[in-house]
Amino acid sequence: MSTLLLVLDLFGTFVFALSGALVAVRRGLDLFGVLVLAFAASSAGGIARDLLIGATPPAAIEDWRYLGVSLLAGLLTFYRHADIERMRNPMQLSDAAGLALFAVAGAQKALAYGLPPGMAALLGMLTGIGGGMLRDVLVSEIPTVLRAELYAVAALAGAGVVVLGDLLHMPPAATTLTGAGLCFGLRYMAIRYGWRLPVAQSTDQGRQR
Predict the structure, then answer these.
(1) Could you tell me the end-to-end alpha-carbon distance of the chain, in angstroms, rounded to an integer?
(2) Residues 26, 28, 33, 35: what is their CA dihedral angle, to the nearest 10 degrees?
(3) Tens of each residue's pLDDT in the chain, 209 residues
(4) Which contiguous run of DSSP H or E holds residue 55?
(5) Would you say 15 and 98 are in contact if contact means Cβ atoms under 8 Å apart?
(6) pTM, rounded to two decimals
(7) What is the C-alpha separation between 128 and 166, in angstroms, rounded?
(8) Structure-derived torsion over alpha carbons of residues 40, 102, 77, 136, reported in degrees to the nearest 10
(9) Is the C or the N end of the chain the one with fewer CB within 10 Å?
């Protein structure tokens, strides 16, 4: 299970770093800025999770592989961004994949450190959304989690599957992969069909009608 969590963490780091680097390239940042945003997007959620559960120093700082993977994704995006952009919705899909992988890995690590089920699910969600929030703040955007279709909810659903599987004593590998699939599926459907939670109607909108 520890090997599976490491693989999920590193792959999630890579795809979240891609999303951060793509935002940086689109904003016209230089190479250093691209690498900084790639590392911030890929590591903030995991660092926050590790600090909250007492896993210090955080894995993203202690293990050189996290930095190496994020820098690799940043360099790849900087020099080959035209090829990456030709993929369909590259930033949104890489962000969705990172969200799913980090949400389930975060929940599993929280459970391993003895957190109760509800808090483990919330920590999984935080792990998934933390990097994207910092990425958006650094480029002066409203964080995606606050405005996009089923973002934090998708992460919470994926983490919830992991927690439920633990309560039912199901194989952790199976529940982890199922949770990741559910989270990615919800996020993809939200991107594809615009699924979202209700939004309050502002006073100005009401007057215009």
Answers:
(1) 55
(2) 40
(3) 677 778 888 888 998 899 899 999 999 999 999 999 999 999 999 999 999 999 889 989 999 999 999 999 999 999 998 888 887 677 788 888 889 999 999 999 999 999 999 999 999 999 999 998 999 999 998 888 887 678 899 999 999 999 999 999 999 889 999 999 999 999 999 888 877 877 777 666 555 55
(4) none
(5) yes
(6) 0.86
(7) 19
(8) -50
(9) C
